[in-house]
Amino acid sequence: MTLAHDVAGSGPTVVLLHSTACDRRMWDPQLPILADAGFRVVRSDMRGYGDSPVPDGPYNNAQDVVELLDLLGAEEFALVGSSGGGRVALEIAARWPYRVTGLALLCTALAGHEPSAELRAFGEREDALLEAGDVSEATDLNVDTLLGPHADQATREKVREMQRRAFDVQLAAVEEFPQLRPEFDRADITAATLLISGDHDLPDFRQIALRLSRELADARHLELDWAGHLPSLERPEAVNPLLLDFLRGTHAGSGRDLRS
Fold first, then answer.
1. CA distances to 11, 60, 156 from 118, in Å
2. 0.85 exceeded by the pTM?
3. Using one digit for the tens of pLDDT, what is the confidence trace for 199-209?
4. Right CATH number for 5-250 from 3.30.1300.10, 3.40.50.1820, 3.30.70.330, 3.30.428.10?
């Protein structure tokens, strides 16, 4: 299955991987900015999100993304991942390190992370609401938990729409198939990495960023004192320059002329 996706612009390829509270529409504030700056921007919906149907068998998100990029002829690419999309980006960068030129991770999740009491309580509350059939309340829980104080009402409604769409699509599935978890070693990641965390986020995501900043060979960590879990939506005017500066740096010496 080919993931639902959009492609905009031309130049070095940048892949945008969405949070599992959202879908590819979360990157609406970044897509035109990156394309206008001289990048070919690819964004896709993971299975069961946005316009991609739920899995029809065992699957692997990282493999799905790489197969899409193969179809698009992208031999090398930078990855920008938010939350669960960051976890997918880390897997791609470890399994196919020779293809990844840069890795920007916004409030990334991490395979094997032991959740804090706060994160466990959030997950248990979400599960209880969904089991009770209260999808609206579960959606509101995600919006209220994940967005920081700078998110305006339009942003809150956009996240609510994307999260509700994901719940509706996934809850309607007749059968649930497992995601395959191939082994990989994060020590194999060679790409320069930008780690972003938010002071208004759950504590786990700052802890993950700090851990990765120590583990990865070429990583720096930037804390945003205003941000919640979805800074690229909360204040795109602050995040977009950070992404542009980083992505231009990953292609320094590539021979490509990126627009200033």
1. 42, 28, 21
2. yes
3. 999 999 999 99
4. 3.40.50.1820
